């Protein structure tokens, strides 16, 4: 009977573990993927989800098995077997968590590096190291992620100013100032961010990007949109009483539509009209 219970528990755990893997890769629980960064982040999410499901199901099955197998039977009045320790079991429950934590740490580091988090932090807006230049820090996405687009094409520079309680975007080309972020699909965007008051955060869930915007400390965030559409920009750092209303939108257009928007809203176009 004990062997049968162990077999049933192991079989159930295996089935539920496989089900967890299937759910992780077939049930879309994340927002739509709309940038080059998103698939890399989603890969980490799925791996962590699978590990979590396996650990949860395994521990739950073990607890249920122990409750059934080692329950007090009718007529038993003693305290049970007096056990002082089990070296093999102690090694097992120490080694398994250590291996899991080590794997998650190394894998997360690899994902962080692939997203550009380990790129040199201090550079100017053009990415050139210069001890005399303004100190600018690189955030997630500041390093290049392999793109299918032309790698020789220059990135689109945009300046972001965060303040209570709004995001203001400035396009050096055309000298455009707007409250919404307009970018072309398939082209890398270099977003130079700085706060004028407190710490804010630039977060676009569909891009899988979140970067703090710090007063007095410019930060570069690079990303490449891969899907046209209108996506929310949210401040993800508590910044004051109207923090919940600090939102904007990133509008990803096809290149032709973006060029038309840029031409129509440039200062030269407005002055000439």
Q: How would you describe what is shown here?
A:
This protein has helices at 2-26, 38-69, 87-114, 255-265, 267-272; strands at residues 137-138, 156-163, 166-171, 176-178, 181-184, 189-195, 200-204, 209-213, 219-223, 229-235, 247-253. It is α/β, with parallel strands linked by helices. It has 2 domains: 2-70 and 92-114; 137-272, Cupredoxins -  blue copper proteins (Immunoglobulin-like, Sandwich). The protein has a 6-stranded mixed β-sheet, with no helix packed on it. A 5-stranded mixed β-sheet has the order 5-11-10-7-8. A hairpin with a 2-residue loop joins strand 2 and strand 3. Helix 1 runs antiparallel to helix 2 and helix 2 packs antiparallel against helix 3.
Outline the fold blueprint.
Blueprint: H1 2-26, H2 38-69, H3 87-114, E1 137-138, E2 156-163, E3 166-171, E4 176-178, E5 181-184, E6 189-195, E7 200-204, E8 209-213, E9 219-223, E10 229-235, E11 247-253, H4 255-265, H5 267-272
Parallel strand pairs: 1-9, 2-6, 5-11
Antiparallel strand pairs: 2-3, 3-4, 6-9, 7-8, 7-10, 10-11
